[in-house]
């Protein structure tokens, strides 16, 4: 049996644009994708801290070091520029993989610039920096 666990998240980022007339997805600064381990076209869950909306879309890369976090297509109706978001990816792990697994958490400032990358110990809840 496999279990679904958090693989990575970009925590408390700021939406920089909402583009209704663009094919769907969320554009994410390439540096944040790289640091989080979220892949282009990977399914992500987006949680809007500002208004409580939760939805699923897929990630696409934005220009590195641009600070861009942009909702595209229909998802652009679920947030406005300046909203705070959490972007998360999940994966299927076997019971054997779980004890050695640790999710990646990317912390950004209010301009979506990388502040810190954390790895959480899945079983003990300890932060390893």
UniProtKB/TrEMBL annotation:
It catalyses: L-aspartate + H(+) = beta-alanine + CO2. Pfam families: Asp_decarbox. The keyword Acyltransferase does not apply. It is found in: Cytoplasm. CDD domains: Asp_decarbox (cd06919). One of its GO terms (biological process) is pantothenate biosynthetic process. GO terms for molecular function: aspartate 1-decarboxylase activity. Its main location: cytoplasm. Pathway: Cofactor biosynthesis; (R)-pantothenate biosynthesis; beta-alanine from L-aspartate: step 1/1. It comes from the Bacteria. Is synthesized initially as an inactive proenzyme, which is activated by self-cleavage at a specific serine bond to produce a beta-subunit with a hydroxyl group at its C-terminus and an alpha-subunit with a pyruvoyl group at its N-terminus. Binds 1 pyruvoyl group covalently per subunit. The modification Pyruvic acid (Ser) is found at residue 25. Substrate binds at residues 57, 73-75. Keywords: Autocatalytic cleavage, Cytoplasm, Decarboxylase, Lyase, Pantothenate biosynthesis, Pyruvate, Schiff base, Zymogen. The active site is at residues 25, 58. The keyword Cytoplasm applies. Its cofactor is pyruvate. Its EC number is 4.1.1.11. PANTHER family: ASPARTATE 1-DECARBOXYLASE. Belongs to the PanD family. Catalyzes the pyruvoyl-dependent decarboxylation of aspartate to produce beta-alanine. This is Aspartate 1-decarboxylase. The lineage of its organism: Bacteria, Bacillati, Cyanobacteriota, Cyanophyceae, Oscillatoriophycideae.
